[in-house]
Design brief:
Length: 188
């Protein structure tokens, strides 16, 4: 299991995932661990919505994202679970990059992302826990809006080109890309 949450501020024992049986290896790779920066970016009117926020995340967190993909590649011959708190931003971004890498069409990635359902009670609790106030954060940023992912995919391609090239430029070894494709794609 790859935990994308900030180790110090987001993790509470009562919200820890339950083991699924047997041994579960947990690796923490915190994406956007500086929560003050996250809050600032979410309120920044010059950031082009959530697509722009996700683009900013890949700009700031390339090394961490490469590490997450590396961890998944090393373990992809068995179930791998990666998650954050609500499952739409950090988890959605990693899923989108992996799906793009595996050749899924953009509209398929958008549809997958838009299936994320956020429990408003959990979101409200999370915001209180982080001492965030929703004022100034557009409501679209608190839900999994298809246009947000569509925008991110367009902006990523324009700024960085292909996902495999971006991951390789960030230090991902070619054997990890090959392993992901061999293990996760049906050869037929």
């Amino acid at each position: 299991m790859v935990d994308l949450r900030n180790r110090n501020r987001e993790r509470e024992p009562r919200f820890e995932p339950y083991p699924l049986g047997g041994t579960v290896d947990v690796v923490n790779v915190a994406l956007m661990a500086d929560l003050a920066t996250v809050e600032q970016l979410l309120r920044d009117p010059t950031v082009d919505g959530m697509g722009g926020f996700y683009l900013e995340m890949v700009r700031r967190e390339q090394a961490a994202i490469v590490e997450v993909v590396r961890i998944i590649a090393r373990r992809c011959d068995r179930p791998v679970w990666f998650h954050c708190t609500s499952g739409k931003d950090r988890t959605g971004l990693v899923a989108a990059l992996l799906l793009t890498l595996l050749g899924v069409a953009p509209e398929g990635i958008v549809a997958d992302y838009a299936c994320s359902v956020l429990d408003p009670v959990v979101v409200a609790h999370h915001m209180r826990h982080l001492r965030w106030r929703p004022e100034g954060i557009p409501s679209a940023q608190l839900r999994a809006d298809a246009d947000s992912m569509r925008s991110f995919l367009r902006q990523f391609a324009a700024a960085h080109g292909r996902v495999d090239d971006w991951l390789a430029a960030g230090g991902l070894e070619p054997e990890h890309l090959t392993r992901l494709r061999i293990e996760l794609l049906d050869p037929a």
